[in-house]
Design brief:
With 379 residues, the protein is α/β, with parallel strands linked by helices. The chain has 2 domains: 170 residues, Rossmann fold, CATH 3.40.50; 185 residues, Dihydrodipicolinate Reductase, domain 2, CATH 3.30.360.10. 34% of the residues lie in helices and 28% in strands. The strands form 4 sheets. Strands 3-2-1-4-5-6-17 form a 7-stranded parallel β-sheet, sandwiched between helices. A 7-stranded mixed β-sheet has the order 10-11-12-7-15-16-18, covered by helices on one side. The model has no long low-confidence stretch (mean pLDDT 95).
Length: 379
């Protein structure tokens, strides 16, 4: 049994803490005592501690009392928090999904003899693990990831609910999307290149450009074509583009009857209730990873992994929290079990290249009723 500390007790952080508590002694921290009280009610085995992660001295003091750190703070706090964890010489699993490039901390992690496994969610996360594994088996030419979290009940106009804050969702809709086409990085506007894609048990979904490739742009530069798209119910993109083109996502303040108001702050406030996912509201997570290339025999091959997960009524855990959190706790446990011990910053594709790690992820998730179903064919 190890002593684990989880930073951030939100929907995903609390799910990770509860899962890790099955085998380990777990402390979970958050800035909000109310949030901590809520997670403590769900799992009395947890120890809670109110903590402001921006207080670097206190953060480093408390994490040094543990064997492993799991970082689940909001994205805007993520990079500096991860840097502080590494400087404290602590091994860490990170799912903060901050916009900065985590690989910039690789030299720092090596200097402090730290293993930092980052981006360990569903996507980025398991799609990277799958890519890393097949990159060792095939000469890949194409990688595509389609992923989205969706409410079961479609409520007009947006037909969407988010397990995190609207401002983080809007970030997906405003940050330029990076793709790799014919070996070149291409930057496109998000919410473009819409296409309809069919999924079993869901029907037709809308896929659009989003900036989800992250680390694999740097770790897999030999693959000539790579892209990631976000999935929503048909019609969602049109309504969001209307807001975006009308200026509702702009940060620059405007004068409203003598008051300076940020359109983005205003829009986020309005959408908070519209997009807020209820604690027991049923939703689904859908993912499809498609890989193309030459197999060991020189044959052109396509490999597809599909994942469909739903809200778990038994544990009252959303599918997005399950699929994200349990990927991270799989990484934590495989590290604690000694399957991976290299020093530096490692996105999931650098773990997935090892068959033992790849198999561990899939088995761990299957034990929690999350299934990545494979199909393949010669093309």
């Amino acid at each position: 049994m190890s002593n684990i500390i989880v930073l951030g007790a939100g929907m995903v952080g609390s799910s990770m803490a509860i899962d890790m508590a099955k085998k380990h002694s777990v402390t979970v921290t958050d800035l909000s005592q109310d949030v901590l009280d809520n997670v403590k009610q769900k799992c009395s085995d947890l120890t809670t501690h109110q903590l402001d992660v921006t207080n670097k001295t206190e953060l480093q003091q408390i994490i040094k009392k543990h064997d492993l750190v799991i970082n689940a703070v909001p994205g805007f706090l993520g990079f500096e928090t991860l840097k502080s964890i590494i400087e404290a010489g602590m091994n860490v699993i990170d799912i903060a999904f901050f916009p900065e490039n985590s690989l910039e901390l690789d030299a720092l992690a090596k200097k402090h003899n730290v293993t930092a496994i980052v981006d360990c969610g569903v996507a980025p996360g398991m799609d990277n693990v799958i890519l890393g594994f097949y990159n060792e088996k095939m000469k890949l030419t194409d990688f595509e990831c389609l992923v989205g979290g969706l409410p079961k009940i479609k409520k007009w106009p947006f037909c969407y609910k988010a397990p995190f804050s609207p401002i983080d969702v809007i970030e997906e809709y405003t940050r330029p999307a990076r793709y790799v086409e014919h070996g070149e990085v291409v930057i496109r506007e998000p919410l473009t290149d819409c296409e309809y894609v069919e999924f079993d048990n869901v029907g037709t979904l809308e896929a659009f450009n989003s900036d989800g490739l992250r680390s694999i742009i740097y770790t897999m530069p030999h693959i000539p074509n790579m892209k990631e798209k976000t999935l929503r119910y048909p019609g969602h993109v049109e309504y969001v583009r209307v807001l975006k083109e009308s200026g509702f996502f702009k940060e620059e303040k405007v004068d409203v009857n003598g008051m300076q108001v940020s359109p983005l702050d205003f829009t986020s406030k309005i959408l908070f209730n519209e997009w807020r996912l209820g604690e027991t509201e049923e939703e689904i997570t859908v993912l499809r990873v498609t890989l193309k290339g030459e197999n060991a025999r020189g044959q052109l091959m396509e490999v597809v992994y599909n994942m469909h997960d739903e809200y778990c009524s038994e544990t009252q855990t959303s599918s997005m929290a399950r699929t994200t959190a349990y990927t991270a706790t799989a990484a934590a446990n495989l590290f604690l079990d000694g399957l991976f011990s290299e020093k530096g910053v490692f996105p999931p594709e650098l773990l997935g290249k090892h068959k033992a790690c790849f198999d561990y992820f899939l088995k761990y998730l299957e034990e929690r009723n999350i299934y990545y179903v494979k199909s393949s064919r010669l093309i």
